[in-house]
Amino acid sequence: MGLYEKHILPNLVHAACKHRPAMRQREKVVPLAHGRVLEVGLGSGLNLPYYDASKVSKLWGLDPSPEMIKMAEKQAESVSFDVEFISLPVEELPLETNCADTVLVTYTLCTISDIELALREIARVLKPGGELVFCEHGVAPDANIRRWQKCINPVWKRIGGGCNLNRDIPGLIEQGGFRIKGMRAKYIPGWRPACFNYWGTATHV
Ligand SMILES: C[S@@+](CC[C@H](N)C(=O)[O-])C[C@H]1O[C@@H](n2cnc3c(N)ncnc32)[C@H](O)[C@@H]1O
Q1: Which of 32, 35, 132, 143 has the greatest CB tally within 10 Å of its CB?
Q2: 13 lines ligand 1 (CB under 6 A)
Q3: End-to-end Cα separation, the chain, in angstroms
Q4: Whole-angstrom Cα distance, residue 51 to residue 31?
Q5: Ligand 1 centre from 134 Cα, in Å?
Q6: 34 C-alpha vs ligand 1 centroid, how far in Å?
Q7: What 3-state DSSP class applies to 53?
Q8: Which residues fall within 8 angstroms of residue 88, CB to CB, at 6 or more apart?
Q9: Contact of 133 with 92, CB cutoff 8 Å
Q10: 116-139 pLDDT, tens per residue?
Q11: Residue from 4, 17, 18, 63 to probe ligand 1 pocket by mutation (most atoms less than 8 Å from CB)
């Protein structure tokens, strides 16, 4: 891993993810998590203050970046539920089948390299009837913004730690065998190619 990935990228990701409109999105989805929760791509732990502690019995916080986990550990000091950190990519998820009531992903499906395997692993660990709660940015509905997303994506991906601007988030979730139960989508304030958000819940069928 180079100096950029180790020292600069984690701070850039943290700063970008603290964008106020994204923080408002967290308020909408994170409190839906309940029971035994797996957060995939925990990052610097920005979701931690938004969990409803009365509904969460345990949280597995997974992220392949030890630097991001270190930042999240600080945030976790102020939560009242048990948090276990897992420093691995979701493609190597070490949890047992049917162990989680909720899997939460925010602004992470854009970055995971093997998205099909990741969704299979998420489906595997979710109990029957368990929920995938998501809030992601992805492909925009407007042709001109989609053209920008396509054009900028190769450079963006290099500087953004593998982040893709134009993934079809609902399509990928459905192709992963999930049924989306409720979803909203809109531009949140900010740079439009990175700001079309999809958020909601899905169950595995
Ligand atoms: C844009 S950040 C979002 C962090 C956090 N979810 C948030 O909302 O603030 C994307 C995160 O996904 C993590 N990530 C990248 N590849 C991953 C993988 N294969 N499995 C799990 N997490 C991954 C990165 O390390 C990074 O922390």
Answers
A1: 132
A2: yes
A3: 38
A4: 5
A5: 13
A6: 21
A7: coil
A8: 62, 64, 94
A9: no
A10: 999 999 999 999 999 999 999 999
A11: 63
Q: Answer yes or no: is pLDDT of 147 > 90.
A: yes
Return the ligand 1 atom nearest residue 65 CA. Answer: 25
Buried b (16+ CB within 10 A) or exposed e, 37-71: bbbbbbbbbbbbebbeeeebeebbbbbbbebbbeb
161-179: per-residue pLDDT in tens?
999 999 999 999 999 999 9
- Nearest alpha carbon, ligand 1 atom 20: 89
CA distance 98 to 124: 6
Q: Is 157 in the pocket of ligand 1 (CB under 6 A)?
A: no
The whole-model pTM stands at: 0.97
Q: Would the CB of 86 count as within 6 Å of ligand 1?
A: no
- The mean pLDDT of 39-58, rounded to a whole number, is 98
CATH superfamily for 3-204 is Vaccinia Virus protein VP39 (3.40.50.150)
Does residue 40 have its Cβ closer than 6 Å to ligand 1? Answer: yes
Instruction: Tell me the pLDDT tens digit for each residue of 49-59.
Output: 999 999 999 99
Nearest CA to ligand 1 atom 13: 41
Distance 144 CA to ligand 1 centre (A): 28
pLDDT score recorded for residue 2: 86
